[in-house]
UniProtKB/TrEMBL annotation:
EC number: 3.6.5.4
Organism the protein comes from: Gemmatirosa kalamazoonensis
Gene, per the UniProt record: ffh
Lineage: superkingdom: Bacteria
Function of the molecule: Involved in targeting and insertion of nascent membrane proteins into the cytoplasmic membrane. Binds to the hydrophobic signal sequence of the ribosome-nascent chain (RNC) as it emerges from the ribosomes. The SRP-RNC complex is then targeted to the cytoplasmic membrane where it interacts with the SRP receptor FtsY.
One GO term of the biological process aspect: SRP-dependent cotranslational protein targeting to membrane
Major location (coarse): cytoplasm
Catalytic activity annotation: GTP + H2O = GDP + phosphate + H(+)
Identification of the protein by name: Signal recognition particle protein
Domain SRP54-type proteins GTP-binding: 268-281
GO cellular component, one term: signal recognition particle
């Protein structure tokens, strides 16, 4: 996804490389290029501005350094700040000391929520944590079927109750079943809409209050573009989410917008989805992503 970005930055830094001294003008010119490249990758505008301010402040010091390759040092400053913009360090799933840990998956319809619930359950099971899925998306009957199919494929139990639309009751009953089975984790797949609306948020708030989740993971479609940040803010304001999962990061869309979610909300990106298959979920490492962008 970032090949083009990497290439352009490479060219910018190559021009500066080999110079014994960097002037302020050199740095300004280099950073203008970085700015253009970030905006082209769809990184949030406000975030790009803050990022460049910080890089510029630190980079001015580089002009004073002689002998040690100043362009290299500028790249280092850019890398460090890019890492900070993406989240600083890798953060895994938080587990409750009293099992089962309740994980709520939230996000718009089509974001990849149900698929990601399956991927996460698969990962937890592989780590030796007995996991159960709960189908709390009662508006689309197909969503319950989809989760049950995933459960069968993965050999992971799914709790569903087609006789009621009361999601709080469904979630509570599912968690009871999980307690009896001594499951370590339950993942609650919730309903999504095409857009944020008050009714959906109310339901999710009630669900949150009832099940007291350790994690509320906001699932964002990495191809959404600038909207992704606004949607993340909407979910975060209503639910105070604990983490973010970006899906469809295998596409060739400009993923910079989705990658801006941490910078704006300060909620860590925990995983990225990189394909439709159930093993296509990766831990998100901000430093590695920054490295991939800059290479
Ligand atoms: P939901 O409505 O949020 O539950 O979304 P779904 O889980 O049904 O996913 C919507 C579509 O996105 C499906 O066709 C998934 O296969 C696809 N999808 C989900 N995650 C990824 C991903 O990481 N990469 C790709 N390429 N497709 C994905």
């Amino acid at each position: 996804m970032f090949d083009e970005l990497t290439e352009k930055l490479e060219a910018t830094f190559a021009r500066l490389r080999g110079r014994g001294v960097l002037t302020e003008a050199d740095i300004k010119e280099g950073l203008r290029e970085v700015r253009r490249v970030l905006l082209e990758a769809d990184v949030n505008f406000q975030l790009t501005r803050q990022f460049l301010e910080r890089v510029e402040q630190k980079a001015i010091g580089v002009t004073q350094l002689r002998g040690v390759n100043p362009a290299q040092q500028l790249v280092k400053v850019v890398y460090d700040e890019l890492t900070a913009m993406l989240g600083e360090r890798q953060e895994g799933l938080k587990l409750s000391t009293i099992p089962p840990t309740v994980v709520m998956m939230v996000g718009l319809q089509g974001s990849g929520k149900t698929t990601t619930a399956g991927k996460l359950a698969r990962k937890l099971k592989a780590e030796g944590r007995q996991t159960r899925l709960i189908a709390a998306d009662v508006y689309r009957p197909a969503a319950i079927d989809q989760l049950e199919t995933l459960g069968q494929q993965l050999d992971i139990p799914v709790y569903a109750d087609r006789s009621t639309k009361d999601v709080v009751r469904i979630a509570r009953d599912g968690i009871e079943q999980a307690k009896r089975a001594r499951d370590r984790v339950v993942i609650v797949d919730t309903a999504g809409r095409l857009q944020i609306d008050a009714e959906l948020m109310d339901e999710l708030k009630r669900l949150k209050a009832a099940v007291q989740p350790t994690e509320i993971l906001f699932v964002a479609d990495g191809m959404t573009g600038q909207e992704a940040v606004r949607i993340a803010q909407g979910f975060d304001e209503a639910l105070n989410v604990t983490g973010v999962i970006l899906t469809k990061m295998d596409g060739d869309a400009r993923g910079g917008a989705a990658l801006s979610i941490y910078g704006i909300t300060k909620k860590p990106i925990k995983y990225i989805g990189v394909g439709e298959k159930l093993d296509a979920l990766e831990d998100f490492h901000p430093d590695r992503m920054a490295g991939r962008i800059l290479q």
